[in-house]
Design goal:
single chain; about 5% helix; about 280 residues; Porin; mainly beta; disordered N terminus
């Protein structure tokens, strides 16, 4: 998925974020629930032009801590509303099997639905240094759509973006309070830290390395999470991205490993986008 800082078309941060995440997640709750799927995927500071709709779909196979899972799909709908305001809808629908196969005793395991607004607050560009900074946030309610879940949650992220010699880095920090997974269970509640990376491999950004570092420290009795992803993004046209991403989890709250294939078309909504 192509990444752009808000308002503008160091690998050092990866080390900082990794150290912070490791420190933050050094201990696991003694009374943690098991089987919780990843709740946090770092986002970028891409803001679509007004009237442009971006559909991001990922399909794949993931091995959880015990069962296998088919993702059908992980999706994002992004609608450019104003120059610095985007309306988003994020969710995941999956079929979960058992430890030997995703097709045995499979059942639906949808995540909470997250409608949100992403706002770009500030951006600054230095032409001589080929460097840009951007600041924004994303916030919205978490809606319970899984069977047995209840209550409306909320998630909010502060986003700090850096463009450096063509590479884009977006630091995510925030909090989440998800819906109750089932009656009588506590609400998943924690702080989030993540890094989204997009590094072009050619001058036209046709090919790019994409990666994420995602961590959640829970205050509720849920296992902490630490997840990394790495993959390749291919943009044959300005309105289409194709991607392949591998993921590896490092703590009990994260999936073990997986592979996701993605497609991201962009469409003009009723001809309202500026040319």
């Amino acid at each position: 998925m192509a990444v752009r800082l808000a308002g503008v078309h160091h690998w050092q941060w990866l080390g900082v974020a990794g150290a912070a995440a490791t420190s933050l997640l050094s201990a696991t709750s003694a009374h943690a629930r098991v089987g919780i799927r990843p709740l946090f995927e770092p986002t970028d500071l891409q803001l679509e032009q007004p009237g442009i709709v971006d559909f991001d779909f990922q399909l794949g196979l993931i091995r959880g801590r015990d069962p296998w899972r088919i993702v059908v799909p992980d999706f994002e709908f992004n609608f450019g509303f104003l120059r610095n305001v985007e309306l988003d809808l994020d969710g995941t629908y999956a079929l979960e099997g058992n430890s030997s196969s995703p097709f045995v005793q499979s059942h639906a395991v949808p995540d909470a639905l997250w409608p949100s607004v992403k706002v770009g607050l500030f951006d600054w560009f230095d032409q001589e240094l080929s460097r840009a900074w951007a600041l924004g946030f994303q916030v919205g309610p978490k809606l319970p759509i899984a069977r047995g879940s209840s209550g409306i949650g909320i998630e909010g992220l502060a986003l700090l973006g850096l463009l450096f010699h063509g590479s884009h880095f977006v630091l995510n920090t925030g909090m989440l309070a998800d819906p109750h997974a089932s009656p009588g269970e506590s609400r998943p509640f924690g702080v989030e830290l993540g890094l989204d990376i997009h590094t072009p491999l050619d001058k036209d950004d046709t090919y790019a390395f994409i990666g994420e570092l995602a961590a959640v420290h829970f205050f509720s009795p849920d296992p902490h999470q630490l997840l990394t992803t790495a993959g390749l993004n291919y943009s044959p046209f300005s309105y289409l991205d194709l991607s392949a991403v591998a993921l590896v989890g490092w703590l009990n709250g994260s999936d073990r490993y997986g592979l996701l294939l993605g497609v991201t078309p962009k469409l003009r909504w009723l001809g309202t986008a500026k040319k």
